[in-house]
Amino acid sequence: MRPPGQGTAMLMVLLSTIAFAAPPPPPRLPTAAVIKPVKKQRAPFPTDAQCQSLGQVMNPIPFGPGETLEFDVDALGARAATMTMQTLPIRDGVLPLEVAVETNTFFNKVRKVKGIAKSDLSPKTLRPSRYFEDAFENDIHRIADVTFKKNKSAKLVSTINGQTYSEDMRWGNDVADVAGAIHLLRAIPMKEGQFLCFDVYGIRRIWRVWGTVLPREHVSMPVGEFDTWHLAGEAAPLNLPDARREMHVWISDDAKRLPLAALGMIDFGAVRATMKAYSRPGESSTRAENKANIKW
Question: Helical H runs in the chain?
Answer without folding.
Answer: 6-15, 105-108, 181-186
